[in-house]
Amino acid sequence: MADRAIRTIVIVGGGTAGWMTAAGLAAKLRDLPIDIRLVESSEIGTVGVGEATVPHIRHFNASLGLDEADFMRKTQATYKLGIEFRNWGRVGDSYIHPFGAYGATIGGVGFHHHWLRARQGGDPTPLEAYSLPIRAARLGRFAPPSPDPRSLASTFSYAYQFDAGLYAAYLRAYAEARGVVRTEGKVADVILRGEDGFIEAITLESGERIAGDLFVDCSGFRGLLIEQALKTGYEDWTRWLPCDRAAAVPCETVEPSIPYTRATAFDAGWRWRIPLQHRVGNGYVYCSEHISDDEAAGKLLADLEGPALAEPRFLRFVTGRRKKQWSRNCVAIGLSSGFLEPLESTSIHLIQVAITTLLELFPDRDCAQADQDEYNRVMDLEFERIRDFLVLHYHATERTDTPFWAARRAMPIPDSLAYKMDLFRDRGVVVKYKDGFFLEPSWLAVYLGQNVVPLAYDPVSDTVPDAALAQRLAAMRQTIDKTALAMPTHADWIARFCAATPVAAA
Ligand SMILES: Cc1cc2nc3c(=O)[nH]c(=O)nc-3n(C[C@H](O)[C@H](O)[C@H](O)COP(=O)(O)OP(=O)(O)OC[C@H]3O[C@@H](n4cnc5c(N)ncnc54)[C@H](O)[C@@H]3O)c2cc1C
C-alpha cells in the first residue's frame, strides 16, 4: 500500500494561534518524520491582544512540559480566579464568575437548591459567600489549589492573565527548539490542486514556493487559506452578539494586581481590565451602531486607573464562525476559524481545543471526510455553547438606560439558549452536556448574578430540617472565609513564586 502519511505541515501565521499550534504539534509528533514549517509576516503583525485565559490553558502548558514559574516570569503573568462582572444585570451590580463550585451538595441535592430555599425563607446571604475562589478574589488573595481531594482548598481552579505577545514568543522558542522551521515572508498566492481542490503549496512574495501535505490556517481574521483560497463561508452571529469593534490600550499599574479579570458593562458594550505584572490591559468592546470610535476611545481613556502606555488601537470583527473549520487539507485555528468576543476569555481556549481535536483526529494525506466531519462537529458545538453563554450575559439584563441595553434585553435569542433559560427559571435545573465548555457553576454564576432566579427549587431540599440547613450553611461560610483568609495576598504569592523582571511596559 502506498505511504499516505503526512510528512510536511505548513502553518500560516505566527500569532498566538500559530505558535500554540506549532508548539502543540511539535510536542506530540516529535518522534514522527514530519517537518513543521511556520510562515509569518512581521510586516503584517499580529492582533496582539488576548491576555485573559480559562483554567484549561494549564493542561495545554503541562502537555508541553512547561515550567509554570518560568512561563509566568517570561510572560509577566498573574493568576486568575474568575471574572468580575459589573453593571450587567442592573447598574451597580457586581458578581464574580468563579473557577470553582459553590458550596457542597447536601442530601444528594445540588447546593444552589438549598441556597434558593434559604433565600425564599428570608436568608439574604449572597451566593458568593459559598465560593472559595470568589472570597479569595474579593480579598485579593491567592494560593494554588490543594492536591488533597478531601480539602476545601481543592475545589477550585485558576487560569492566567498574561502578555499575549510574550506568550507567542515563549512558544516560538519552544517550537523552534523542537525543530519547527520559521520562515519570514508574506504569502502572495495559494495554489490549489486541480483534481480535488486540496492546497498544494503557498508562494511567498519572495517567490519561494512552500508545498505541504496539511496546511493550518492561523492567518487571523483574513482567513487567507480557509476563506480567501477555499471559500468556505462564514456564519454571521451579529444578530445575537452585535458588538463589532474594540479599542485597546494598556496603562500603568497603580495598585497591587488582583487575581481576576473585570468586565464592566458600558453604554454601548463593555470594558475589560486585565492586570498583568508589568501593566494593566484595557479595552472597550462596542457596537459601532451605537457609538463612534472616537467616543469609545474617549470613554476608555477616561476610565483608566493609571497613565496610558500607548495610543488606543482599534480592532474590527464580525462575530460568528467559519462554516467549516476543516476543509480539504486545511484546518483553520484561531481568529481564522471564527470570532467570539472576549467576554469569557474563550478564544485561546478554542485554539487549544482545536489543536487537541486535530491531534486526536490526525489524518493522512487524504484527509478523510469522516475526520473532517467529526472535527467540524466538535468545533461547531464548542463555538455554539460559548455563543449561548455570551448571549445570556447580554440578554439577562434589566437595563434599559441606553438604546444598546434596551435592544439587548428585547432581542430574540438562539433556541438552544431559550430552552436552557426556561429550564432554569422553572425549577433551577442547569442543562448538563458532555461536550462543550462551561459547566454548572458557570451558568449559576451568570443566571443568579444577573437576577435570573428560579420560581422553585428541588423539593428534596425540604427533607433537610430548617435548623440543620442553617447550621450547614453557616459552617460552610465560616470554613470558606477561614480558608480564604489563610491564603497569602496575590501580590505576595507572585513575588515569592514567579516575579518577572521589571520591563518598560509599553
Ligand atoms: C479585542 C480583542 C480582545 C481579545 N481578548 C482575548 C482574551 O482576553 N482572551 C482570549 O483568549 N482571547 C482574546 N482575544 C482573541 C485572541 O487575541 C486571539 O484568539 C489570538 O490572538 C489568536 O490570534 P491569531 O493568532 O489567530 O491571529 P493574529 O494574531 O492576527 O495572527 C495572524 C498571523 O498571520 C500572519 N499573516 C496574516 N496574513 C499573512 C500573509 N499574507 N503572509 C504571511 N503571514 C500572514 C500575521 O503576520 C500573524 O502572524 C481577543 C481578540 C480581540 C480582537
Produce the secondary structure layout.
Elements: E1 8-12, H1 16-28, E2 35-40, H2 57-64, H3 68-74, E3 78-80, E4 82-86, E5 94-98, H4 111-120, H5 132-138, E6 159-161, H6 164-177, E7 181-184, E8 187-192, E9 199-204, E10 209-211, E11 214-217, H7 224-229, E12 234-236, E13 245-251, E14 261-266, E15 269-275, E16 280-286, H8 293-302, E17 313-316, E18 320-322, E19 326-327, E20 330-332, E21 338-339, H9 347-360, H10 369-395, H11 403-410, H12 415-427, H13 440-449, H14 466-485, H15 490-497
Parallel strand pairs: 1-2, 1-11, 2-7, 4-14, 11-20
Antiparallel strand pairs: 3-6, 4-5, 8-9, 9-10, 12-18, 13-16, 13-17, 14-15, 15-16, 18-21, 19-20
The structure holds flavin-adenine dinucleotide.
Instruction: Give the rounded overall mean pLDDT.
Output: 96
Count of DSSP E strands? Answer: 21
Unreliable sequence segments: none
Radius of gyration: 24 Å
The count of domains is: 3
Largest sheet: 7 strands, mixed
Major sheet: arrangement of strands: 5-4-14-15-16-13-17
Share of β-strand residues: 15-25%
Q: Measure the end-to-end span.
A: 57 Å
Q: What's the CATH class of the largest domain, please?
A: Alpha Beta
CATH superfamily of the largest domain: FAD/NAD(P)-binding domain
- Named at the architecture level, the CATH assignment of the largest domain is 3-Layer(bba) Sandwich
Contiguous helical run count? 15
